[in-house]
Amino acid sequence: MNGTYVDLLSRLRRGEVDFVLIGGFACIVQGASQSTIDVDVCCDFTPRNLLRLQKAISDLHPVHRMTPRRLPLELTEENATAFKNLYLDTDLGQLDCIGYVQGLGDYRAIEPLCEIIELEGMRIRVLNRDALITSKKAMNRDKDQQTIRELEGIKNIERRGS
Predict the structure, then answer these.
(1) Closest Cα partner for 93 from 141, 25, 17, 15?
(2) Are 42 and 110 in contact (CB under 8 A)?
(3) What CA–CA distance (Å, rounded) separates 90 from 96?
């Protein structure tokens, strides 16, 4: 596993951030062979949780990746309610915090669609394969087609093995 990604997730866990691993790294954890350049998580976008997120990664110099001036992450109780997604660059790499997963819903909707996986000694919540497939299909991007086939193949192999 990519140590940088594990380090980012470990910081979120230690910071008691409510999140579920989604996206490319979740697909890798679920057995797909794709590559990814970031960690995608679906977060509870309450001010309390976002402030925990900020505290957990503050020493990594997080900046808003999608802003022209790459502004530093400076959340307050008041401005945290304005965010729906956070696309961050940190000293450990890119961290995308998503408030709504296409085809599935927000954090509360996807919580029941995850499973707990042990990853390098840490227990994290990861979208299950069915939810990942649903999400990838809803995004309908060319780059997701191979991942969908792989995840469906893994499901079929496991079903035959049961």
Answers:
(1) 25
(2) yes
(3) 10
**3.30.460.40, 3.40.50.12710, 1.10.260.40, 3.40.50.920: CATH of 3-161:** 3.30.460.40
Residue with tokens 């304005």: 82
Give the list of residues 6+ apart from residue 120 with CB closer than 8 angstroms, or none. Answer: 1, 6, 10
On the question of pLDDT at 162 being above 90, the answer is no
Q: Are 113 and 128 within 8 A, CB to CB? A: yes
pLDDT score at 157: 87
Question: Which amino acid belongs to residue 45?
Answer: F
Q: List pLDDT tens digits, range 88-133.
A: 999 999 999 999 999 999 999 999 999 999 988 999 999 999 999 9
Helix 129-139 to helix 145-161 angle (10° resolution) is 160
